[in-house]
Amino acid sequence: MLIFHPQYRAYYKQASIEHRRKILYSALLACVFMVIVIGGLILLMMQEKRSEEAYIQEKITQTQVKLTTDSLGILNKKPVRARVMLISIGDINLKEKQLMLYLGITLHYKPQQFINDPNFEVVNAVANNTKLVKQHHNPDGSLDALYLTRVQIEPYYLMPLYPTDVQLIALRLAAADMDSDYYIQVTDFQNYSPEIGDYALVKTGYVNQIESYPINFAESNTSYFNQFSRVYLIYDHQNILNYLKNIQYILLSLGLAICSLLLNTRKRGPYLERFGLISGAVFALASNIFQINASVKPISAFSVIDLISVFTAIVIISSFFTTLRSIKFADEDGYETAKSFDVTMFSVLATFSILFFILVYLVL
User: Of the residues 13, 85, 284, 297, which has the maximum number of CB atoms within 10 A of its CB?
Assistant: First the structure.
């Protein structure tokens, strides 16, 4: 660190005792302020992360519903077992509303148990092309029917944690006819799709759930139960190179603002150069905001990028006020005192900036 450099210590010793005390108090105040700022921002990020983790767990956790003998719906239906294969999936683009998937679904059932041949639908998708490609009759009288279907879904992207986000891609399968005498029960889910873009697949699975609808029947309250299946994929966007790529202009902004404090201040002219660098930092921060807006859809909640931008703005403002205070030190006690103050504040801001970005990556 520059504060341990012999030249800096020489400058510091040349300052008056009163100004040394002011430099020390300023550094301590800056440290306390940065700890509060970083702690508050990290807590907000962790709160958003816990919220998204709870949402994902809710969608992929098996629910238990107690059915009574007078329950309507599922008690009168027979299961049709389904094996799902994901053949391909489009790239995850947070700016796009739709995502294309190509599926293979095999239904296993005994035709004699049903009035009509069972069929399925992907409830949260629009099927562009579904066709029966193969049937196989088993010795026990059961039938395997293989369907290929291309569907488009509108995924609920979890964007507040971008670019360290985790995305849940889910498909909800149910019987094609809600009033039919069967329900779809997924027994296997296989993923054969290649890797997509910057996202790494971390988990796949399926869950069979029972949902209930309260209804009023014969002047009494009861519930209608229906079973559906959800197959899901969880993708992780956390990659150090991708993380740095999405905050490159923020890093440039911080570098300009913090390094401006190292400009020589023996003459008044370099202070104008400092203000020029700080202005450049503001434009670099604005450029990063425009870059992110071009990559993701706007959301009403505070995102990780918003909180990082807030931190960057605080550092830029701190550099600006440090420059103003340095001018006053130069006028009152000379160049050496001003230089000591600049190097001290540079060390504080640089240290806490590095710490902040490391914590963001590790926590999220």
Answer: 284
